[in-house]
Amino acid sequence: MLINALERLALTAWAGGLWVIGYLVSPLLYRHFDDTVTAAAISGELTGAVAWLSLVCAAVLIPAQLRHRVRPIAAHWRFWLLAIMLALIAIGEFWVRPDMASLDPEAIEVSYLAALRASESIYFVASFIALVLVLGGLQPASEGNSGQD
């Protein structure tokens, strides 16, 4: 019971953080700041904070998914969605973000725009996976179902 509540809290924090920062706060920053470099810097800091929150939540959610499974691991779609989302967040935070930080956004370099599009795509896919997990729930319909889930 406590683990189920902790799972719901972690998924809520993860999905909510992704959606609020990515689809509400960041667009508002670009709308209200005349200086897009400042807006990008603040947005980058916020998405970086969400990435670290995501890593912490994944550290709770992935082991929790494994605790009551007796079927082969390949049959657990929730586990694999969490693993894919974790991989996307890690790629975005540790591979794409440092590349973007080393480039000059005012120069409108092709490599900066490519990194920005990659980052946006990763963020969109991760937030869509979060939506699927929120709608589908973290628990199987019943613990006794035989591969229906």
TrEMBL record:
Q: Does the keyword Transmembrane helix apply?
A: yes
Question: Where is the TMEM205-like domain positioned along the sequence?
Answer: 9-106
Instruction: Determine the domain of life of the protein's source.
Output: Bacteria
Q: What is its main location?
A: membrane
This protein is called Probable transmembrane protein
Q: Where in the cell is it found?
A: Membrane
Task: Name a single GO cellular component.
Answer: membrane
Q: What is the lineage of its organism?
A: Bacteria, Pseudomonadati, Pseudomonadota, Gammaproteobacteria, Chromatiales
Classification via InterPro entries: TMEM205-like
Q: Name one Pfam family in it.
A: DUF4149
UniProt keyword Ribosomal protein, yes or no: no
Source organism per entry reads Halorhodospira halochloris (Ectothiorhodospira halochloris)
The UniProt transmembrane annotation reads 9-29, 49-66, 78-96, 121-138
Keyword tags? Membrane, Transmembrane, Transmembrane helix
